[in-house]
Input
Amino acid sequence: MEDKDNQQQEIDKLVNELHDVVRQLLRLMRQEVSLYDLSMSQVSVIAKLDVPGGLTGAELARAEGVKPQSMSSTVASLEKLGLIQRQPDPADGRRIVLSLTEAGLEARRNRLAAKQVWLHSVIEQLSPAERQELKRGLELLGRISR
Output
């Protein structure tokens, strides 16, 4: 019984540590790779709109897991910044399609490139043994995330 309790405590500790590390890593990435000081919801919308043909407001809201009304202020703010645009749907002129502008595409590319540079610089500082540990840890994370 005590062995099972110890296992449960170890699992609980790992769950908490994993949560903390993921949260910290995301926070660091947001700090290191700022994009026009955009909110995470704005950054997420830009990522979702990086598809051929764009998305309607309803499709975007569904992809983000929010109601279309909730999406309207995020869309309006990105449109005001010149990062997204509205256009009639070529297949159905009654619908409006949201897509990235050239500035939006450039911002997305810059953000992705900055993430790569930052992660590369962090990993480069690890010893070869630490990189092997990281590789094994990523394999495990990949396995549990499937």
